[in-house]
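Minutes, project check-in
Item: structure for the 416-residue chain
Input as provided by the requester:
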Amino acid sequence: MARIKTAVNVEIGLKPYSTPKDTKFTPLHDGSHSHRLYDGRRHDGLLDLLQDKLKAMKEASRTSKKEGEDDNEILPLLRLESFLMPQPPVLLARHPSSLSGSPPKGENVSLKQLYGTYKEQIGRGSSGVVRVTFRPHSIDHPTGGQLFAVKKFSHREKETTKKYMKRLGAEFCISSSLHHINVIQTLDLMKDDGDGGFCQIMEYCSGGDVYTRVRSLGGDGLSAVEANCYFKQLLRGLEYLHKTGVAHRDIKPDNLLLTRRGCLKIADFGNAECIRLPWEKQVKLTTGLCGSFPYISPEQYTVIEYGKPKSSYYFDARAVDVWAAGVVYMDMRTGKHVWRYAVVDRDAQYEEFVRDMEEYGCWDPIEMLQGAACRQTIYAMLDINWKTRPSVSDILKSDWVSSVHVCAVGESGDSM
């Protein structure tokens, strides 16, 4: 693995702070910053959610009167503002789902009973649809309710039931075993109350995703301070995954969710691979193309050649994640895709990148990043040769990334 060069007199490249109209990111006088994010796409269903919240408040108030409690002690805990903030996910005490065992006789535990009613769709992909549910006050949340993100797995075209079950089972097994502040928490897998399809229940992030945040600025890109905050959190999440023996293989802004206060969480493990089991020391190399085109690394576009050894088509999936993270950073800073395909004869921008790197050892979009240490790190991550890309741990130890300030919520993992 390549080692990132040490740079003296490290600069922290600062793009002018966001204009006053952008109230979602605020630099503070002490050099820190704060985020106040919300996903504009999700406001259509808030009226229903607020109505449910009001019902929960009324019920809690009635309960408190029965128990002789003072309303003044209960109602401050039920502020509507708290509803808009994602609550720490709680794995609800429940009977095993149909995948792990049958509920006790005479009981039929439904998704609605456990995680509430569907309110609106918040995402769609090739593997399924994601909707938000609201569960009113309960033993776990006696003074309010809780929101969940529920991903319903869809059957792909020409996919057999066996392959469907294998796919959703693999994703759930990987995602439910991961526990890190920068990785989405997967809580459960059970059947949908309607058609019997399988649903994966996850914590809900009300801040949207990095893609939506970047596009909300109209193509200008994020300031260096904000982009660096998200980037370092992404690297921390990836380091945890790689040390656990998992490669994500579909890192892109859409799969990087945000809480309302700016904590980044890696989501969607539909393409994830187990590259090393706990008792193994060596990482398994992989092959094949997967992910989203602008973020797919060049080694995945292989052309089968006669007489070429089969081993030459394999690569380290961790290096794939490193490449994708580097492209994501360029996305955040430029506000657009730097290329569509990492293939010379298919994409003019990528062809220019390869040519300029070979002839001049630099590329204008990266040179526009302020700070030598920053530029060195991104160049290393976008090394065309996967064997010489740095590991995520090396990147986190680099002069630039180690000096990046992460917001307080990003450090603590507190979703508030």
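Outcome recorded: Residues 6-12, 42-48, 69-106 have pLDDT under 50 and may be disordered.
No further action items on this chain.
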